[in-house]
Design brief:
By secondary structure, the protein is of the alpha+beta class. Helices cover 27% and strands 26% of the residues. Helix 11 runs antiparallel to helix 12. The structure holds beta-D-glucopyranose. The site of beta-D-glucopyranose has 9 residues, from helix 8.
């Protein structure tokens, strides 16, 4: 069942009923200020850090779900309603929500009044614009009163939800004309405040929640709206809110827009006050002056659109499959940018108070956005490398505000170092900026210990080699990519984190996945070295890769597929000898991506086992059979009920590894079939089962053992976005930057007999036209009319337009 449709020309998803199977959200902001906005206008906003600089309050896990956010109430005679349907939930004559690139437009109509709420964060400002457009569609003159409402958060979102004995005493506001200022804690250590402004005179306002809502009322019946009279309350302690009341009179057919601005402002410490006790409002006024008129807002929308045109035009495709096109051209790269901005911090499943920036997550995310924002990708790489230790290991996470490693989590996730090599390889191929390898980067952010980035990568590579176990395979540490496979942790005490407590200094538990990663990413390291004319070192690196390959074939092959690991006691994990967890997906994907068993048939065999044992209607499960009880020696993986998350869920992130692997063994039909199962645009008709947004990937889909097989969770902030983009753009469509040039080598089934693609890279534009027989065979290329040897089109000079014809 569908709950809306794609509008490809507008690059929007159009939701046509407020009763979606789950709140379907969008993100506002692409620089320093961000908002999450649901199709009911639920959500919140923050400046840079979702935990420490939260402007507005949002209650996760609330009843009803998705309560609160940016609420606009309309009073029309005796009736009152909310154009975004919730929270008043009066039936609407018309409802529509359009989630677009960095903006959301919700329209509701009732009783002859049509109200459109447009939400966006303009470029170059730390504020949300809410443009409210009201139109009288009836035949009689309308006298309307509009009430706005946001609930302010006491900045630190965790403290805000826990420390009531303090927080209910600190609330302070200032009211200045049509601007409401939230200035709690400003008198002491904070130099920042929030403001909520409207470009119209007020009929009244409220800043005290209890005065506005009423102590025993809900947001669906706030007493001020029910009575129609603002109380001009000034919050002192308790819960500050921002609510404007604006009167409008509309003749039949008449339309009027109001511009609300919800923003963040900061003052230098020596300019905090206008005069004693009065907050310096200059930075807020400056932003208000820039976005207060209709033409200013139109210009902001146009600028945002141009910004996204620029980002999305780096790679576009036109094929006979509109779903493929909308994923590749719009929604997948859009989601990749959201993961760049948010990492895993704030979504409707990530509360914004938990995790920082993950080392492995961010390096993988980069694979999906590097072509859109190479300059910012460069900085991200340097930030990540600066959280590395001299031994090549890395903090597993760092805090976005300070860019410092997170001590609570620490290091010891032994896959982490390799992802940095992969990210730098992708970055240099994309940009040709090899100077980054010479950048001096500190270890653990200690400026006294700088070394060139190249040296960081060397230590990453060496970290694997200096941590090998009894079979010559890499030690897993606290976990590898599969955070929940904790082979050294043995957690028996509730409430302790699986990965960070009780860690034994195990020198036995080994990961075949890291071994596979080493065979796939090691050659990338060698290529970088060769490119820097370090051929001897490159040869040594390749020798180490070959040793690893031999170790995998000798100790990591289970007969029909690759093993997953050896545990602390040296027992096999992911083997037919196991009662549960006989086959895991990760090692199949990575070993094949590393070329292990390609020549011997084992690669195909492993992928056949994936198809036979792990594939379902909704995607590839992480492992089978699911663990039915808690295995102390395996850790968190077995803590989940069967079919969920890492315990035999369809962990979307790992599916594209199999798609890529299938292209490497030359099976386009299978590769594309997997792609179609997972890519959300193809799941639109299953929305009542899938439940999360049909325009973005979700991290996890319940596996076959789960009660609700096919139901997705954790939409948006997942490495699935980057990896699916890599799989579809670089392996299925087959357009992939290499150090020497742009490789064009598609691997698609016959149902995509042709396509054209435009790829911008290193300042040149490549116009690619592909004719495809569907056999997954060799690509023959002509470049600007001349036949090419091989499938790598040499880099053209910046500004050049190169025509590439390809026959497969
Ligand atoms: C984490 C990743 C991890 C994945 C699989 C995600 O929640 O962000 O770092 O690789 O789970 O366990």
């Amino acid at each position: 069942m569908r709950f809306g449709h794609f509008d490809d020309a507008a690059r929007e998803y159009v939701i046509t009923t407020p009763r979606t199977p789950y709140p379907w959200i969008n993100y506002l902001g692409c620089e320093e200020f961000f908002g999450i906005v649901s199709h009911l206008a639920g959500g919140y906003c923050f400046h840079r850090d979702a935990r420490l600089r939260r402007l507005t309050r949002y209650r996760y896990n609330a009843i009803p779900t998705d309560a609160g956010g940016r609420t606009y109430y309309l009073r029309d005679g005796g009736d009152y309603w909310t154009p975004a349907w919730a929270p008043v939930k009066r039936e609407l004559d018309h409802y529509e929500c359009r989630h677009g690139m960095g903006y959301t437009r919700i329209t509701g109509a009732r009783g002859g009044v049509r109200a459109e709420l447009l939400f966006l964060v303009p470029l170059g400002a730390s504020a949300e614009i809410h443009r409210v457009t009201l139109r009288n569609e009836g035949r009689v003159r309308k006298r309307l009163r509009l009430f706005s409402l946001v609930e302010f958060c006491f900045w630190n979102a965790l403290d805000d939800q826990t420390n009531f004995q303090r927080n209910w005493n600190i609330g302070e506001v200032e009211v200045d004309g049509s601007t409401l200022y939230h200035v709690s804690e400003y008198r002491e250590r904070r130099n920042h405040y929030a403001y909520f402004h409207v470009n119209a005179p007020l009929a009244g306002f409220d800043t005290d929640r209890e005065s506005f809502v009423g102590l025993y009322n809900g947001l669906h019946e706030p007493q001020v709206v029910v009575e129609g009279e603002p109380r001009n309350s000034v919050a002192r302690g308790w819960q500050p809110v921002g609510s404007h009341a604006v009167d409008l009179e509309l003749a039949p057919g008449e339309e009027r827009s109001l511009v609300f601005l919800l923003g963040y402002a900061e003052n230098p410490p020596d300019r905090k006050w206008e005069r004693p006790g009065l907050v310096n409002k200059a930075p807020a006024r400056e932003v208000i002056a820039r976005f207060s008129t209709a033409p200013q807002v139109d210009a902001a929308i146009a600028a945002l659109r141009a910004h996204w045109d620029g980002l999305l035009s780096a790679f576009t495709v036109r094929s006979p499959d509109e779903k493929l096109d909308r994923m590749v051209n719009v929604w997948n790269p859009y989601q990749c940018m959201v993961t760049f901005n948010l990492s895993r911090s704030a979504s409707y499943f990530d509360s914004g108070i938990g995790r920082g920036m993950g080392f492995r997550d961010s390096n993988q995310d980069l694979l999906g956005f590097v072509h859109q924002i190479p300059t910012r990708a460069r900085q991200r790489i340097l930030d990540l490398a600066a959280t590395q230790f001299p031994d090549g290991g890395a903090y597993h996470q760092y805090q976005p505000l300070t860019r410092r490693g997170n001590h609570e989590v620490g290091s010891g996730f032994n896959d982490d170092p390799l992802w940095l090599i992969l990210a730098v390889a992708a970055y240099t191929k994309e940009t040709g900026d090899y100077a980054i390898l010479e950048e001096q980067v500190p270890f653990d952010n200690d400026e006294r210990t700088r070394a060139p980035l190249l040296d960081h990568l060397r230590r990453s590579f060496e970290h694997v080699l200096s941590n090998l176990g009894p079979h010559g395979l890499p030690l897993i540490g606290r976990a590898d990519w599969n955070d929940c496979l904790n082979l050294n942790c043995f957690s028996e005490t509730p409430d302790e984190p699986y990965q960070t407590t009780g860690v034994r200094d195990g020198r036995t538990a080994e990961s075949v996945m890291i071994a596979g990663m080493f065979t796939a990413i090691g050659p990338e390291w060698a290529r970088l070295l060769s490119h820097q004319d370090r051929t001897a070192e490159a040869a040594q690196a390749l020798e180490a890769v070959r040793r690893m390959e031999r170790a995998i074939l000798e100790h990591g092959w289970d007969g029909e597929w690759f093993l997953r690991a050896y545990d602390f006691h040296g027992r096999k994990v992911g083997s037919r000898e196991c009662a549960e967890g006989q086959i895991f997906v990760e090692s199949q994907g990575w070993c094949v991506m590393g070329g292990v068993g390609l020549g011997t048939g084992q690669a195909r065999q492993a992928l056949d086992a994936v198809a036979a044992r792990l594939d379902t209607r909704y995607g590839i499960m992480l492992q089978q059979p699911a663990y039915r009880s808690y295995h102390l020696e395996l850790g968190e993986i077995s803590s989940y009920p069967p079919g969920y998350k890492e315990n035999a869920g369809i962990f979307s992130h790992s599916n594209p590894w199999i798609m890529i692997a299938e292209t490497l063994v030359g099976r386009p039909d299978r590769a594309f079939a997997y792609y179609r199962k997972l890519a959300p645009a193809y799941l639109e008709d299953l929305s009542e089962i899938h439940r999360t947004e049909p325009y973005v990937y979700a991290q996890m889909i319940a596996g076959r053992d789960a009660a609700r097989h096919g139901e997705a969770k954790n939409a948006w902030l997942t490495g699935t976005a980057a990896w699916n983009f890599v799989a579809v753009s670089q392996y299925l469509l087959g357009i992939r930057p290499e150090h020497e040039g742009l490789r064009v080598n598609p691997c698609l089934p016959a149902e995509i007999p042709e396509f054209t693609a435009t790829r911008r890279c290193r300042g040149a534009t490549y116009l690619v036209r592909v004719r495809n027989s569907g056999g997954g065979g060799r690509a023959r290329l002509t470049v600007d009319g001349r036949a090419l040897d091989g499938d790598v089109v040499p880099w053209a000079r910046p500004g050049a337009v190169v025509k590439v014809d390809c026959v497969v």
